[in-house]
Amino acid sequence: MQIATFALGCFWEPDDYFSKLKGVTKTRVGYSGGTKKNPSYYDLGDHTETIEITFDPKIISFEELLKHFWEEHDPTEQQVTQYKSAIFYQNKEQFVLAEKSKKEMEKKLGKEIVTDIEKAGTFYQAEEYHQKYLQKGKGRVC
Questions:
Q1: What span, in angstroms and rounded, lies between the C-alpha atoms of 116 and 41?
Q2: Residue 92, helix vs strand vs coil
Q3: CA 82, 118, 44 angle in degrees (round to 5)?
Q4: Which of 70, 108, 114, 128 is the least crowded, having the fewest Cβ atoms under 10 Å away?
Q5: What local confidence, expressed as pLDDT, does residue 28 receive?
Q6: What is the C-alpha separation between 6 and 89, in angstroms, rounded?
Q7: How distant, in Å, are the alpha carbons of 30, 32, 76, 111, 139 from that of 55?
Q8: What is the Cα–Cα distance from 60 to 31, expressed in whole angstroms?
Q9: Hey, where are the domains in the chain?
Q10: For the chain (length 142 residues), average pLDDT per consecutive 10?
Q11: Interstrand relation of 116-119 and 85-89 (parallel, antiparallel or unpaired)
Q12: Angle between helices 92-109 and 62-71 (to 10 degrees)
């Protein structure tokens, strides 16, 4: 199994979407990219809402996950840190693939992509009530 960590706005809808892809074995939502220790939803500090995806690379590749990442949000729209677009890479291979896909997407869209590509640091799991939020029937408003 491998891990992919993405930020693409509010984490509830990406969690629902990616959890349904064949080859994805687990998803969880949380906070990444900041310096604050033990962030929470109401004390986020400089972290970004993210989704951590555990996947079987024999069934779905990191490249395929990147395709879904780009399709599921507008990577040209500047957002506040909480909801920014970001790829938190786990290793050099993910970094290279993320950079390549970003360049391809910029060429395809003809616009600047504002997605950050950062080395993955500590992933802080969000509070339990955020996990599988949409599957619990809580609605679609962030």
A1: 21
A2: helix
A3: 25
A4: 128
A5: 98
A6: 9
A7: 17, 19, 27, 30, 26
A8: 24
A9: 2-130
A10: 97 95 98 96 96 98 98 95 97 98 96 97 93 79 68
A11: parallel
A12: 40
Residue 51, beta-bridge partner list:
6, 29
Helix (H) / strand (E) containing 108: helix 92-109
pTM score, two decimals? Answer: 0.95
Cα distance between residue 101 and residue 43, in whole Å: 33
CA–CA distance, 113 with 18 (Å, rounded to integer): 21
Tokens of 25: 């074995």
Nearest-angstrom CA–CA distance, 11 and 28: 9
User: Please, are residues 86 and 48 in contact by the beta-carbon 8 Å criterion?
Assistant: yes
**CATH fold of 2-130:** Peptide Methionine Sulfoxide Reductase; Chain A (3.30.1060)
Catalytic residue ranges: 10
Tell which residue, 71, 75, 86, 88, has the closest CA to residue 5. 88
Strand partners, 35: none
- Residue 133 is predicted with a pLDDT of 83
In 3D space, the residue among 78, 89, 74, 80 whose CA is nearest the CA of residue 123 turns out to be 89
